[in-house]
Amino acid sequence: MESTTFRIQREADVYVALSSGRRLATELQFSETDRTRIEICILELAHNLIRHAGGGEMTITMLRRDDQTTGIAIEARDNGPGIPDIELALQDGYSTTHSLGAGLPGVRRLMDDFHIQSTPGFGTTVRAVKWRTTRR
Fold it and tell me: What is the pLDDT of residues 10-63, one digit of tens each?
């Protein structure tokens, strides 16, 4: 498992992580559509780290399930205020920052696996995975 961790504190950090994710998705031969989905996930989760927690870490990991299935995991971690109501945060249109409220629900729809864990006062971890299967 190959992984790279990035400190996300400011806008420039977002694009360093994005570039790495784009490169890995290309190496793993994801379709253009899935590469775009992965990029949107990285952008959204990295911006959430800055916007809601004042920064955090993002890890991008290459996954291998078997000989024919590879994937990319994006994990964002912070020590911010946490999310008091995860179900509410995952509803389309809900926002604490007067945005469209499409971020977390959109990431959940774009990726194959999605998990969020949050403890108010201690932080949040979001993990999203996109899988690619090679047909033989």
Answer: 999 999 999 999 999 999 999 999 999 999 999 999 999 999 899 999 999 999
Indicate left, alpha or beta for 57 from its phi (over 0: left) and psi (-120 to 50: alpha). beta
Burial class (CB within 10 angstroms; exposed 0-12, middle 13-18, buried 19+) of 1 = exposed
This prediction's pTM: 0.90
The whole-angstrom separation of Cα 82 and Cα 98 is 18
| Partners of residue 28 on adjacent β-strands | none
Largest pairwise CA distance in the chain: 48
- Please answer whether residues 71 and 65 qualify as being in contact, where contact means their C-beta atoms are separated by less than 8 angstroms: yes
